[in-house]
């Protein structure tokens, strides 16, 4: 066989092998995904009943009970986080896209990127020194602040990117009508970009809902019903952690159910947001 | 007439969209054929069918294309593309490679690694592309640090280095300034001694200047194909006449 | 009446112009208001560093640099040396990257170079779904599925076949470095894969066509694309490293939590993030708390450097290819 033909066959075979390997890599990545979903659903479903949503945790030794307090706690915590993270993120994103073409803008953009890479546990430590130490006790507020800080980078960046996607002609149309820039930005630009910004907010909220590390020593946890901002509060994610480590099989089971509920909550959060933003879009 | 490429009943699709309708055309050896027509008429698609680049972006074809009597759809596209070189609309040298390595890239794909073999071929190709004198002292510079016109001639040299039989040019001068354009046109004139050239252009003067025959495409159909002088002075078809006289398009 | 209001409005406008120049008053307020929030974000990051510096001051003063080089972490004796913890962090992160980066690049190649459009979207969605699973759920799965599997199958297999190496010795306990590495590599994978995919897709199509038109095979043209994108992919890897270094819950739940420097992957270990998660609420003395906050500060500084470096790499590639 002549050498160039041999080389041709060799590189064809190499190509097929390498490209097949890339397919294999993709399939390998899907294995843990399938396993995690399979176990969470199959193990979590056994305790999934109405009690789980409306009942309180039972004391050690008794089986059954629910996590009503943790579900309410998670919602309250991401609510507090949202109150901080959404306005800061949206306004900072607006600043970056509308007025941020300067040195300070680049610095803030860079710091948002840096913030998005800061481990959530570090944010928890900061919330501890900022809120827990002065208040002298753990609180939902401290946990919510930690979650709020964690939401800022995601919301800021999506807002900036979404606003930049709004065509310049639309802006000019507003300005040409004699509408001041701030009104143009709010009424035309932000309204057009709203759908994208909402997706960013949703992403921030759903990530926050799954966060555990920053809550361990801020919101701490609570075995009783509480919706007080100044008091320690339960959350699904911290419950999963505590119950997974606990030596009781019943609690381990409930950890799976809590994981399932948490993942359902995250999906519902994303679904409702999608539906809301879609219907708004259609009526336009 | 000595036929290099023979296309019969070619139809090309993007998904269900038919972009070329029943094209039959013969391309003579060592001649320049220009493809003209308004944008969206399928002229680039036609060119990309000839070296099977159309299928790279997910397109499909029916009908037959023969190169020297050999059915192109039955040949290995990798080997085929070596025989039918292509120059693109925008110069696309490899930014991570030096000028030398850009020209040698095609040979390296084919397993030629010996620098003793590569060096003379690179030099010959750069000379053929009329770029040698401008770059011979900095062959190790990056392929993107030269002007746009030089980049395009580098891409032509890169195509020539693998010793193709046909050169397909997709609006090769549309991104260039007038001086670079005239250099490319001179080059085409030189190259046709050894190569068969198919050039897609939206510039009718260019088609008139460089080509022997011209094909006019409109809405995915081949409207008229004849000697260039005939197309531009006395076209048989009314649409062709309207287009070359600038009444539409 | 109407003329009157017009007149007052006119007067007010003149008044405002005097104060604020010719710029529209509303615009100015709007700009300043958004600026205020941007300044808030700016100050927040600085405040975070400052708070942790203050919080760890007594530990910094007492231990100085020996905090990083001393290998004894003993809360009872109040001696805090973070070396074994830093070791655990570095080793777990690097091994996780070694496992997941090749896979991630493979996935990125498949998604951007090979898969047809109809397949790419759902597959990308699935890979990103992996990134959306909360860390604590990974940990839960780690404790009840991954660790038993490692204990019963992986570790006995490895010690039987490769037991002559120091890395695969010791009791098959399940919880330990190996479990942490595996779970981290799963968690890092979607990040590196999806960023690398975006980076490969940002390489202009004309590069692939140039290669293919010269008679390159699919893999040869992919190699050209990879070469164009190498700094971006390295940046994606660094972002993955940043994530691995700071990952807390899943690691804490499976790594065994002991400040130990051991070559064996079967042995328990500790990472900076997991020490903080585990011991912070038990830290009773000021010095203990201060040492933990210092650990958070070190983690903060490290991740800032990693992320800044990664960002620069991605930027430099985008600039070189002119895609931005």
How would you sum up this structure, described in words?
The complex is a heterotrimer of chains A (284), B (249) and C (324). By secondary structure, chain A is an all-alpha fold. Chain A is 77% helix and 0% strand. Chain A has 2 domains: 3-47; 53-283, MetI-like fold (Orthogonal Bundle), CATH 1.10.3720.10. Chain A has 10 helices and no strands. Chain B has a domain at 3-92 and 166-244: Rossmann fold, CATH 3.40.50.300. Chain B contains 10 helices and 10 strands. Chain B has helices at residues 43-50, 77-83, 99-109, 115-128, 132-135, 148-161, 178-191, 204-210, 228-233, 238-244; strands spanning 3-14, 17-28, 32-36, 59-67, 70-71, 84-87, 166-170, 196-200, 213-218, 221-227. Chain B is globular. Chain B starts with a strand and ends in a 5-residue tail after the last helix. The mean pLDDT of chain B is 92. In chain C, helix 5 (83-114) packs parallel to helix 8. Chain C has a two-stranded antiparallel ribbon with strand order 1-2. Chain C folds into 2 domains: 2-55, no CATH class; 65-321, MetI-like (MetI-like fold, Orthogonal Bundle). Chain C has helices spanning 2-20, 25-55, 57-63, 66-69, 83-114, 117-132, 135-162, 177-202, 205-213, 218-228, 230-246, 249-254, 272-279, 286-321; strands at residues 73-74, 79-80. In chain C, strand 1 and strand 2 (79-80) form a beta hairpin. Chain C is mainly α. Chains in contact: A-B, A-C, B-C. The interface between A and C is large, with 87 and 87 residues.
Biggest interface goes to: A-C, 87 and 87 residues
Q: Give the termini separation of chain A.
A: 69 Å
Structural class of chain B: alpha/beta
Number of strands of chain A: 0
Alpha plus pi helix count of chain B: 10
Coarse shape of chain B: globular
Written as H for each helix and E for each strand, in order along the chain, the element string of chain B is EEEHEEHEHHHHEHEHEEHH
Main beta sheet of chain B: 6 strands, mixed
The major sheet of chain A is characterized as: none
Task: Tell me the number of structural domains of chain A.
Answer: 2
Extended strand count of chain B: 10
Secondary-structure element string of chain A: HHHHHHHHHH
């Amino acid at each position: 066989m002549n050498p160039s033909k041999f080389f041709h066959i060799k590189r064809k075979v190499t190509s097929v092998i390498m490209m097949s390997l890339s397919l294999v890599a993709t399939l390998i990545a899907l294995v843990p995904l399938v396993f995690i979903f399979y176990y969470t659903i199959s193990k979590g479903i056994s305790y999934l009943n109405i009690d789980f949503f409306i009942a309180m945790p039972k004391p050690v030794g008794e089986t059954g009970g629910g996590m009503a307090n943790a579900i309410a706690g998670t919602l309250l915590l991401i609510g507090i986080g949202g109150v901080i993270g959404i306005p800061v993120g949206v306004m900072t994103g607006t600043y970056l896209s509308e007025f941020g073409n300067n040195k300070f803008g680049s610095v803030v953009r860079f710091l948002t990127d840096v913030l998005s890479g800061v481990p959530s546990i570090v944010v928890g430590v900061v919330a501890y020194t900022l809120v827990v130490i002065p208040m002298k006790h753990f609180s939902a507020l401290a946990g919510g602040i930690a979650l709020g800080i964690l939401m800022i980078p995601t919301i800021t960046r999506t807002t900036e990117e979404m606003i930049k996607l709004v065509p310049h002609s639309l802006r000019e149309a507003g300005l040409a009508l004699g509408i001041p820039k701030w009104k143009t930005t709010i009424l035309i630009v932000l309204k057009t970009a709203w759908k994208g910004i909402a997706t960013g907010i949703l992403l921030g909220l759903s990530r926050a809902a799954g966060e555990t590390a920053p809550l361990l020593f801020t919101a701490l946890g609570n075995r009783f019903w509480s919706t007080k901002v100044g008091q320690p509060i339960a959350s699904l994610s911290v419950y999963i952690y505590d119950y997974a480590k606990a030596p009781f099989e019943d609690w381990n089971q409930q950890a799976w159910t809590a994981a399932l509920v948490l993942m359902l909550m995250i999906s519902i959060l994303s679904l409702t947001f999608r539906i809301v933003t879609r219907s708004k879009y259609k009526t336009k | 007439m000595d036929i290099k490429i023979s296309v019969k009943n070619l139809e090309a699709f993007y998904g269900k969209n038919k972009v070329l309708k029943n094209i039959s055309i013969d391309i003579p050896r060592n001649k320049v054929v220009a493809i003209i027509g308004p944008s969206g008429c399928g002229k680039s698609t036609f060119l990309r069918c000839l070296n099977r680049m159309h299928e790279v972006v997910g397109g499909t074809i029916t009908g037959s294309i023969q190169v020297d009597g050999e059915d192109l759809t039955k040949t290995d596209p990798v080997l085929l593309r070596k025989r039918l070189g292509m120059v693109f609309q925008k110069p696309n040298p490899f930014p991570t490679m030096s000028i030398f390595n850009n020209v040698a890239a095609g040979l390296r794909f084919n397993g030629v690694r010996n620098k003793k073999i590569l060096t003379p071929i690179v030099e010959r190709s750069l000379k053929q592309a009329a770029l040698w004198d401008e770059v011979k002292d900095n062959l190790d510079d990056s392929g993107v640090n030269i002007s746009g016109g030089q980049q395009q001639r580098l891409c032509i040299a890169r195509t020539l280095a693998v010793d193709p039989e046909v050169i397909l040019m997709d609006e090769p001068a549309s991104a260039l300034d007038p001086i670079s354009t005239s250099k490319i046109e001179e080059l085409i004139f030189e190259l046709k001694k050894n190569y068969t050239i198919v050039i897609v252009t939206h510039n009718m003067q260019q088609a008139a200047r460089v080509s022997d025959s011209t094909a006019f495409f409109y809405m995915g159909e081949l409207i008229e194909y004849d000697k260039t002088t005939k197309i531009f002075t006395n076209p048989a078809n009314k649409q062709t006449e309207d287009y070359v006289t600038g009444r539409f398009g | 009446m109407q003329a009157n209001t017009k007149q007052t409005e006119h007067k007010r406008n003149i008044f405002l112009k005097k104060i604020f120049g010719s710029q529209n008053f509303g615009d100015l307020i709007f700009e300043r208001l958004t600026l205020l929030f941007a300044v808030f974000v700016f100050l927040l990051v600085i405040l975070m560093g400052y708070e942790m510096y203050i919080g760890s001051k007594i530990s910094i003063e007492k231990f100085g640099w020996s905090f990083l080089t001393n290998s004894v972490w003993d809360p009872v004796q109040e001696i805090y040396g973070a070396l074994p913890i830093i070791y655990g962090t570095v080793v777990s992160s690097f091994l996780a990257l070694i496992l997941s980066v090749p896979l991630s690049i493979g996935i990125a190649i498949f998604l951007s170079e090979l898969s047809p459009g109809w397949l790419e979207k759902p597959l990308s969605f699935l890979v990103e779904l992996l990134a959306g699973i909360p860390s604590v759920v990974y940990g839960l799965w780690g404790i009840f599925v991954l660790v038993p599997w490692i204990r019963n199958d992986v570790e006995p297999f490895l010690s039987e076949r490769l037991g002559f190496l120091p890395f695969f010795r010791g009791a098959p306990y399940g919880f330990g470095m190996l479990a942490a590495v595996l779970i981290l590599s799963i968690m890092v994978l979607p990040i590196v894969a999806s960023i690398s995919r975006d980076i490969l897709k940002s390489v202009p199509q004309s590069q692939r066509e140039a290669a293919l038109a010269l008679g390159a095979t699919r893999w040869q043209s992919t190699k050209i694309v990879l070469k164009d994108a190498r700094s971006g992919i390295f940046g994606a890897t660094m972002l993955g490293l940043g994530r691995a270094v700071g990952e807390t819950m899943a690691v804490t739940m499976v790594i065994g939590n002991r400040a130990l420097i051991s070559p064996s992957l079967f042995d328990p270990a500790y990472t900076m993030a997991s020490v903080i998660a585990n011991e912070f609420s038990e830290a009773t003395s000021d010095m203990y708390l201060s040492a933990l906050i210092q650990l958070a500060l070190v983690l903060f500084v490290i991740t800032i450097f990693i992320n800044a470096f990664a960002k620069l790499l991605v930027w430099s590639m985008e600039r070189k290819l002119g895609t931005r």
